[in-house]
Amino acid sequence: MKRIFVFIVALLALVQLQAHAQTDSVQRYVSAALEIMKNRSVNRHRINWDSLCTDTYKRAAGLKTIKETYPVLKHALTALNDAHSNFYPPEQVEAYTLGYRATGQEFPVIKAKITDNNLAHIELPPIGCYHFAEWDELVNTFYEKITELQSHKPKGWILDLRGNYGGMWYPMLAAISPMLDQHQVIGTVDADGQYAFFDYRNGQLFEGGKAAHRFHVKKQPRPVTQPLVILVSKKTASSGEFCTIAFAGQKQVTVIGQTTQGLTSGNQEYKLADGAFLVLTTGNTVDRHKKEYNVVGQGVTPQVLLNDLSDEACLKAANDILSRHR
Questions:
Q1: Residue 3 pLDDT
Q2: What local confidence, expressed as pLDDT, does residue 325 receive?
Q3: Residue 213 to residues 155, 173, 174, 177, 210: CA-CA distances in angstroms?
Q4: Considering Cα of 285, then 290, then 296, then 297, what sign does the dihedral take?
Q5: Are the C-beta atoms of residues 29 and 69 closer than 8 Å to each other?
Q6: Is 131 helix (H, G, I), strand (E, B) or coil?
Q7: 128: exposed, middle or buried (C-beta count within 10 Å: 0-12, 13-18, 19+)?
Q8: Which residues, at least 6 apart from 214, have a Cβ–Cβ distance to it below 8 Å?
């Protein structure tokens, strides 16, 4: 009987120890996420952290597994009031890093053509993966399309961002770089007023002066020097808006269409203990003149507003504008 009693006591102690370890693990997980938010959020100086932390710990109290904390952390992110931060569980992160083809998705299609008026029309689609080989593929394909269009000696260019709802900014910046007239045309400013400009040169991308990513570029196209029209819509968001802002202040560039969605802030991925991503807004976008785009939902207003965003109407408007530059 003594042996059975001792065994039961030991078993109960083990169960209690495991339960305590799980609770401790959950608390540490939540605490780590809150610490990232507190240190890096673009709105960190506007948040009552005592209140937010107390509320978050209260919501997490009694939870047994890390997975159960996901809705709690998503709720905490909404309190940051940036409309752009998000939380991605490990299985979504895995698909995100495996890329399009490995997960059975269609790879983004880059459409390009010469119009009847001899204008080069190229679309930059959104790209939403963290697979570097596919980043290279997007950039190299975009460059090949530019080179092909240049062979027709176009009178002007149209960069179509109407369907670009965002995704990964680095490959998009690399793709449009031949169309930009100078370096460091876009950046972010954080909660302490510190600026970090992006720069892309010969396959190397820099952020705030630090090397951030290396692309494997097959052949860089010649710079695009002809007048340029950028097409945008209400669907144009996030990195699609960054592309638009990168041209702000560039000569012979006209933005036409409809006001963009208004997610003009920069995000950073932070990997948590179980592989989940805390995607946090760490800065607001600024253009080459340090104009800050910090109002959620305000978006970028085109120089020429169009009620009709059909291909026919957009191409006619673009042709009218580009013909005045000739």
A1: 53
A2: 78
A3: 34, 12, 10, 15, 9
A4: negative
A5: yes
A6: coil
A7: middle
A8: 203, 204, 205
**Degrees, nearest 5: CA angle 241-259-239:** 10
Kindly give the pairing relationship between strand 228-232 and strand 156-160: parallel
Contact 169, 200 (CB under 8 A): no
pLDDT at 1 over 60: no
pLDDT of residue 24: 75
pLDDT at 8: 44
pLDDT average, residue stretch 63-79: 96
Domain regions of the chain by residue span: 2-81, 94-323
**pLDDT confidence tier of residue 38, bands split at 50, 70 and 90:** very high
Query: Whole-angstrom Cα distance, residue 106 to residue 98?
Result: 13
The CATH classification number of 94-323 equals 3.90.226.10
Cβ distance 314 to 257 under 8 Å? yes
Q: Are strands 277-287 and 265-271 parallel, antiparallel or unpaired?
A: antiparallel
